[in-house]
UniProtKB/TrEMBL annotation:
GO terms for cellular component: mitochondrion. One of its GO terms (biological process) is L-leucine biosynthetic process. Its cofactor is pyridoxal 5'-phosphate. GO terms for molecular function: L-isoleucine-2-oxoglutarate transaminase activity; L-leucine-2-oxoglutarate transaminase activity; L-valine-2-oxoglutarate transaminase activity. It is an enzyme of class 2 (transferase). Keywords: Amino-acid biosynthesis, Aminotransferase, Branched-chain amino acid biosynthesis, Pyridoxal phosphate, Transferase. This is Branched-chain-amino-acid aminotransferase. PANTHER family: BRANCHED-CHAIN-AMINO-ACID AMINOTRANSFERASE (PTHR11825:SF44), SUBGROUP IIII AMINOTRANSFERASE (PTHR11825). Its EC number is 2.6.1.42. It comes from the Eukaryota. It comes from Rhodotorula taiwanensis. Belongs to the class-IV pyridoxal-phosphate-dependent aminotransferase family. The modification N6-(pyridoxal phosphate)lysine is found at residue 206.
Length: 385
């Protein structure tokens, strides 16, 4: 992989804080719409090829000033991350596995020929941003702070070429519980005329370009009465909207098996996906103390390719036990219906009465939230700010 030398490294100890002179009123948590309210401050780190990284600054959240010729506006050198901070019962702020987000961001930066940075330094600065905007941290159950690190190419030139000027910034948005009135299973339409990601493409990176092209198919699905797209590559399941996907099957011979596609260039390596795998494996391991409530311990967790024709046949023979997606925004989302080849595949959603989750999905949601809010410790996933 191409590695761009960075002259001056990104250094948290050089961080300067310029408090906003016009702090905003904080809206009620019940009035929050996902990703539409922003805190008072943002972190900005500028890089250019001659100097390397400038001293980072936390200052007022405000519009950016970039050239209309900035490459990001033409050729889309832009990537992002998404992670959350949670308030625990002692009033402390916690990040969930930020090291995985930073490692993914760094990998994306390399693929985009952006400068690299020391992930620990950026985590330190995100912690400082959380401290500066502490009064914005929502405290109601189910709420969190969504954190959006972003990198864009700002070189003013219509020539396609390396990003010799880059802006890394981090903004934050307080978010309410994703499903305010309880979880609701979603309907999916299989994509037949569009793919989200393809072999040797960039579907495994959080590049803006991967998402821009997903909007029209999403709108088509909505017009046909489905909430999200089930992204297939030919007949192979890849992802659910902007989430990783899991399929549960239960037969007397195999017992309960949860399957997710293996990581590859067509799958985004989700932090939630990684966590789901680890929790299911810990649960199935008799020598591990962790258990998922209400889930049989006879369970296999497999990473292998899944085809929609198989899912349809499992629904047909009654062995399909559930389908769900995983991602930072909603954590876990169960699926109840999949539009496929002109018909609907019905997916059971039979967790605890009216929970809106399938049985394993609901237990995973509860377990992940307990770890994220610091009620339960699991490895060192929850990091104090
Ligand atoms: C971000 C994202 C996910 C989920 O990743 P998390 O790290 O779990 O939030 C899954 N699929 C796509 C396409 C994504 O962009």
């Amino acid at each position: 992989m191409l590695s761009i030398p960075s002259v001056e490294p990104l250094t948290a100890s050089k961080l300067r804080v310029e408090p906003s002179s016009s702090p905003k009123a904080i809206p009620d948590a019940s009035a929050l719409v996902f990703g539409q309210t922003f805190t008072d401050h943002m972190l900005t780190c500028k890089w250019n090829i001659e100097r390397g990284w400038d001293a980072p600054v936390i200052s007022e959240y405000k519009n950016l000033e970039i050239s209309p010729a900035a490459t990001v506006l033409h050729y889309a050198p832009t990537l992002f991350e998404g992670l959350k901070a949670y308030k625990d019962k002692q009033g402390r702020t916690r990040l969930f596995r930020p090291d995985l987000n930073m490692a993914r961001m760094l990998r994306g930066a390399q693929r985009m020929a952006f400068p690299t940075f020391e992930p620990e330094e950026l985590i330190e600065m995100i912690k400082e941003l959380l401290r500066v905007d502490e009064r914005w941290m929502p405290t109601e159950p189910g709420t969190s702070m969504y954190i959006r690190p972003t990198m864009i190419g700002t070189r003013a030139s219509l020539g396609v070429g390396p990003s010799t000027e880059v802006l890394l910034f981090v903004i934050m948005s307080p978010v309410a519980k994703y499903y305010s009135s309880g979880a609701k299973p979603v309907s999916l339409l299989c994509s037949s005329s569009h793919v989200r990601a393809w072999p040797k493409g960039t579907g495994d990176c959080k590049f803006g370009l991967n998402y821009a092209a997903a909007v029209a198919p999403q709108m088509e699905a909505a017009q046909k009465g489905y909430q999200q797209v089930l992204w297939l590559l030919e007949d192979e399941l890849t992802e659910v909207g902007m989430m990783n996907c899991f399929v549960g099957r239960n037969t007397p011979e195999t017992g309960l098996e949860i399957v997710t596609p293996p990581l590859s260039d067509i799958i985004l390596p989700g932090v939630t996906r990684n966590s789901v795998l680890a929790l299911l494996r810990a649960h199935a391991n008799p020598s591990h103390p962790f258990t998922l409530e209400g889930v049989p311990s006879q369970l296999t967790m497999s990473e292998k390719r899944i085809f929609m024709s198989e899912v349809a046949s499992y629904a047909e023979d009654g062995s399909l036990s559930e389908v769900f997606g995983s991602g930072t925004a909603a954590i876990i989302t169960s699926v109840e219906r999949i539009g496929y080849k002109g018909g609907d595949v019905r997916v059971p959603v039979e967790g605890a009465a009216a929970s809106g989750f399938g049985p394993v999905a609901g237990a995973l949601y509860e377990a992940l939230q307990a770890i994220q809010y610091g009620d339960v410790a699991f490895e060192n996933w929850s990091v104090l700010v």
